[in-house]
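so my prof wants the structure for this chain in the tokens format not the other one, which i didnt know existed until like an hour ago. anyway here's the sequence
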Amino acid sequence: MMAVAGDDARVLFRTGIHAVMEAWPALQIAVENGFGGVHSQEKAEWLGGAVEDYFIRNDDLKLDEVEDFLGDLMSNEFDTVVEDGSLPQVSQQLQAMFCHFQRGDRAALKEMTSRVAQRKCRVMVTTVRTARETDEDEDDMDSMEEMEVTSVNHGAAMQPDRSSQTIKEEDIVEDGWTIVRRKK
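here's what i got, hopefully its the right format
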């Protein structure tokens, strides 16, 4: 009977890990844009198993060790450096789930997983171009593109204001800074 309860908790832990990974915008952006190559989706699925194995093999992990592990995986598998501040949050969620798993607290695992799944958002990336870039030749590979990230929560898109996507020429001052104006 104890093995069945432990297996059930392990399945819940695995489900929780996958929910956290699916709700992590940095990973979703990397997958949707193919940063991991043609097999980005498979790598994302593998990542959940790798995280589970990491926790199972190391039962006394510190938060910074989990952050480093996730950061290394994102860097090595998706050529992505996560600088959005989400690594500590994701690491903390995973570590909390692991503590519930170790205690066999299936109710807390289910509750955390459902909470994470509710906050899950699909990520859309939109390229933002300045008026000057729009007028210039599109073949110029030296120009850097800015990206605007828009979250889609519960199927309803929070679309960016299309009028604000093109930065007017007069809003760019000589030193390259952009003047941000308040909406009227």
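also thought this was worth mentioning. Residues 2-22 form the longest helix (21 residues).
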